[in-house]
Design a protein that fits this description.
The protein has helices spanning 3-23, 36-57, 63-88, 98-112, 123-135, 140-161, 176-181, 187-207, 211-227, 229-245, 249-275, 282-293, 306-310, 316-329, 336-339, 341-344, 351-373, 380-399, 413-425. It is mainly alpha-helical. The longest helix is centred in the middle third of the chain and has 27 residues, at 249-275.
């Protein structure tokens, strides 16, 4: 691309972004109660807010790098708005998919003051309700919030991962899974952002502790604990594993204190969720763990055949063995991508984004494996990303024995991408058969 074109591309993308915005101002009846002019101001705020986040997080980098991230952010916003307008919004009134139900339940809270349907996780509904109570009840508002949160988390982890190659990490904000789920009232996006931000802030706090870093960590961890407590618990596990592998006694003591605080925040998340009427509380979680680990798991009503039905466990051994296989199913291309190619890659359906993400994740899998095989050669921050990705990888596959749903993979998408891209860029130092003692990277990789 020529230099003049690079300079005007952001302005072109800004203008183009108002096309899908204008088309989104007429959703099905009963879905929007927001003033179009107020949404127009929010669209401007999205553009300004995105540029502010990029300039704030990546302020030490060149204008070319910041502009590159801004361009990808605008493209992601445009694509998500197109998906919202032409594929997603029309299905919200009747779709039984969780993200569609969450939006309808948010409108229930607006109308009746409470959720009128049974639901395990009320935290996600009330999070979006409080958000839309301020910015307006419209399908565009969750997209705006998700896109800004994804951008913030993505720029943070890109800066932390590899400062010398930061331009290569722009995919952590422009990835098919994110383009798809950013437009929805999605608990997975909240959990992904929480996991990513907390992982980065944990590493930053270890280097230099400040009140601002601690506050950001607590806010995003509490968001995870409120929206979905088990995902917050998995971050505690990741930090616990990291603590065991660390040799520095000072850091080990700090980590134990941090883990204790995180445990209290999870209990606080349970408390708030229980007060709002959620059926997912500590008693429910205890009973569910006992039931699933004993193998007393039944297939969901919508799971009648296929791999998911075959992997329903019937005893404790199958619970873990099938769980490992199920974990791999989240990152391997499904056979129907070949046998039913036209349907699975139809751009007018929401299968396209998930399948493209599966192919990209599968391509990066060998490099992630090489990184894990050469774990001791990696710099400390990349080691932690690897640990965290592995913990979420197996927790999701093993802990959800009744179904395989690719949206759960989104929780570890940004951390997995940061780890895998780093291993791909430094692959010459990461052989499949470790033998060299040369380390990859140093502390200078950290920004």
């Amino acid at each position: 691309m020529s230099y003049p074109m690079k300079r005007i591309l952001p302005f072109i993308l800004i203008i183009v972004s108002f096309i899908p915005f204008s088309l989104s101002l007429d959703p099905p009846e009963g879905l929007s109660f927001a003033d179009p002019f107020f949404l127009f101001l929010e669209q401007i705020g999205m553009i300004v807010g995105g540029w502010y986040i990029i300039n704030n997080v990546l302020r030490k980098y060149s204008i070319q790098t910041r502009t590159r991230y801004f361009n990808f952010y605008l493209m992601s916003l445009i694509i998500s708005m197109i998906l919202l307008r032409f594929i997603w919004v029309e299905t919200i009134p009747t779709n039984m998919y969780d993200a569609a139900r969450y939006y309808r339940y948010t409108l229930d809270v607006r109308e009746y003051g409470r959720v009128t349907h049974g639901l395990n996780y009320f935290g996600v509904v009330y999070s979006y309700y409080w958000l839309m109570k301020v910015f307006g009840f419209d399908p565009l508002v969750p997209l705006y919030a998700n896109a800004l949160l994804t951008l913030y988390a993505g720029t943070l982890i890109a800066r932390m991962a590899d400062s010398k190659n930061i331009n290569k990490y722009v995919w952590v904000i422009f990835f098919p899974d994110l383009l798809q789920y950013n437009m929805m009232t999605s608990r997975e996006i909240f959990c992904m952002v929480g996991a990513t931000v907390c992982a980065v802030k944990y590493l930053e706090i270890r280097e230099k502790r400040t009140n601002a870093k601690i506050a950001v960590f607590i806010v995003f961890f509490l968001l995870m604990a409120f929206v979905r407590p088990p995902m917050a618990a998995m971050l505690v596990v990741a930090i616990g594993v990291h603590t065991i592998l660390m040799s520095n006694s000072k850091h080990r003591t700090r980590n134990l204190v941090l883990i204790s605080i995180m445990g209290l925040l999870i209990l606080l998340g349970f408390y708030f969720s229980d007060q709002l009427g959620s059926s997912f509380n500590q008693d429910f979680l205890t009973e569910r763990v006992q039931t699933t680990m004993s193998g007393d798991v039944k297939a969901r009503g919508d799971v009648r055949e296929g791999l998911t039905k075959m992997l329903i466990p019937h005893n404790t051994f199958e619970y873990f063995a099938f769980g490992i296989i199920r974990s791999l199913a989240y990152v391997l291309p499904a056979p129907h991508m070949v046998t039913n190619f036209a349907t699975q890659f139809d751009p007018t359906s929401l299968r396209l984004e998930g399948n493209l993400a599966s192919l990209a994740i599968f391509f990066l899998l060998p490099f992630a494996y090489r990184g894990l095989r050469n774990y001791k050669k990696l710099p400390p921050h990349i080691q932690f990303f690897g640990i965290t990705a592995v913990v979420f990888f197996f927790a999701i596959g093993i802990g959800l024995p009744a179904l395989i749903n690719l949206r759960y993979r989104t929780v570890y998408t940004q951390i997995y991408l940061a780890f895998s891209i780093y291993c791909f860029l430094h692959r010459k130092y990461l052989p499949f058969n470790p033998g060299s003692s040369r380390k990859v990277g140093t502390k200078s990789h950290m920004a």
